[in-house]
Amino acid sequence: xxxxxxxGGGSVQAGGSLRLSCVASGFTYLRYCLGWFRQAPGKERxxxxxxxxxxxxxxxxxxxxxxxxxxxxxxxxxxxxxNSLKPEDTAIYYCAGGMxxxxxxxxSYEYNYWGQxxxxxxxx
Length: 124
Hints:
Elements: E1 3-7, E2 10-13, E3 18-25, E4 33-39, E5 46-52, E6 57-59, E7 67-72, E8 77-82, E9 91-98, E10 113-114, E11 118-123
Parallel strand pairs: 2-11
Antiparallel strand pairs: 1-3, 3-8, 4-5, 4-9, 5-6, 7-8, 9-10, 9-11
């Protein structure tokens, strides 16, 4: 059974930084894609960043230059380093895992497994 558990959310002032973590258990696919998504109140869920089993990465335009996705295979942990945070980054952040059939993607329906989410609040 696959389980994804996020942590690291919180409240921060604009310009600050946060690092989100996602521990994956039971996720044993040789080829896969892991991603971070977010959903703000009243808005659709959107992809933020993704990384595949080869270590290739993809970012939404809103995240480029500010966010960095990485993974530690030994710890089965996915990270999202978020710098220069803005109030518009406020959302619930979810990590997700997919079996990689679609390659490196920020499309939510290509992911099969989801964490419960962690709240990020950025104040101005």
